[in-house]
Amino acid sequence: MTETIRVNLAARSYDIVIGSNLLPDAGRLLKPLLNRPRIAVLLDENVERLHLPKLLAGLKPLGVTCDLHVIRSGESAKSWKILEECVEWLIDIGIERQDLVIALGGGVVGDLAGFATAIVRRGIRCVQVPTTLLAQVDSSVGGKTGINSKSGKNLIGAFHQPSMVLCDVLLLKSLTRRLMLSGYGEIAKYGLLGDVEFFNWLEENGSKVISGVPDRLIRAVQKSCEIKAGIVAVDETEHGRRTLLNLGHTFAHAIETDVGYSDLVLHGEAVAVGCCLAFDLSHEVGFTDASIPSRVRSHFRMMGMCTDIHQLPARLSPAERLMELMKQDKKVVDGKPRFVLARGIGSAFVAKDVPPDAVRQVLRKSAGTNRQ
Ligand code: GLY
Questions:
Q1: Residue 290 within a domain
Q2: Which of 70, 100, 192, 274 is most buried (most C-beta within 10 Å)?
């Protein structure tokens, strides 16, 4: 079963192909994009042994020359230094605008390769082959590319849409449960921000998605990509509706920056906590009743995920410091962070004037320091 979702962006439109065991078919899928028999692959060191041989075998029928560049694993690779290495490598191997670059890996490789291909020769086409659940449902789709600044996550980057996204769910078999759950944080986010029926479905099927039951996993990836594609098609560069995709992310990015992007808290884990806090904040400022954040929290808890700051395996800074970090969020307007809040499950909106006291209260409660 292969599903194809079109991201409609005029001349920058592309397909997201979702299925199980797609890599052997990579040659046939990519053939229409090929102008000359030359492909460069940027890949994560962890996937070199696991998935590269299968990708190369899939590309073999094309008779292409494949140049490979391995990137070290981990969020710290999203740096000026590694970006420079990737860019200089692409130039050294003589990559041309007509060529194709494949990003094989999780969000780190996808963001780096996407950014490198956005700026080398002012733009080379990039095909995303995401190997983590998080990258399949979020970071590989929509064209956000970039690296981290010492002041915050993803503060340096460009919009550069991929030319195709190949989501092979068989690649997810090698992931740990923790990595699957991190991807699940983003999947749940889609239901929470705009599709209550999807969230209802996740409440029934979330555990099967995580344990890799093929039809449930494909459905979850497909639905997430459909929701994202629909939003990106109407607001490619995030001047309106796309902001909703940041539900939970103002809190999440502050948490991740506070722990120095370390593996102590993975992105999707921070997003799950961030979603709980966004619903708490929605309640605190009067947009929902208490049953809504409680339903959100119960679901993440049932999935075995952290829902609050005090449960995270890292000691976080006090609320005031996290609020300082939020001022570096990309959604900041006039120095004030904007929050994605909700009137209910599936009804998110962007709120501009959220009282800092309400944010402080929510953070303190979540950290277990509200009585200090
Ligand atoms: N991850 C949020 C977005 O792509 O807009």
A1: yes
A2: 192
Residue type at 277 in one-letter notation: L
Residue 46 lies in a domain: yes
Q: Cα separation of 127 and 134, whole Å?
A: 17
Out of 75, 226, 236, 238, the active site residue is: 238
201-260 per-position pLDDT tens digit: 999 999 999 999 999 999 999 999 999 999 999 999 999 999 999 999 999 999 998 998
Q: How many helices (H) and strands (E) does the chain have?
A: 14, 11
Look at the pTM and tell me if it is higher than 0.85.
Answer: yes
Residue with tokens 């953070």: 363
CATH code of 9's domain: 3.40.50.1970
Q: Report residue 32: phi and psi, to 5°.
A: -65, -15
Query: Which amino acids bring their CB within 6 angstroms of ligand 1?
Result: 138, 142, 144, 242, 245-246
Residue nearest to atom 3 of ligand 1 (CA): 245
pLDDT of residue 371: 54
Give yes or no: residues 166 and 187 share one domain.
no
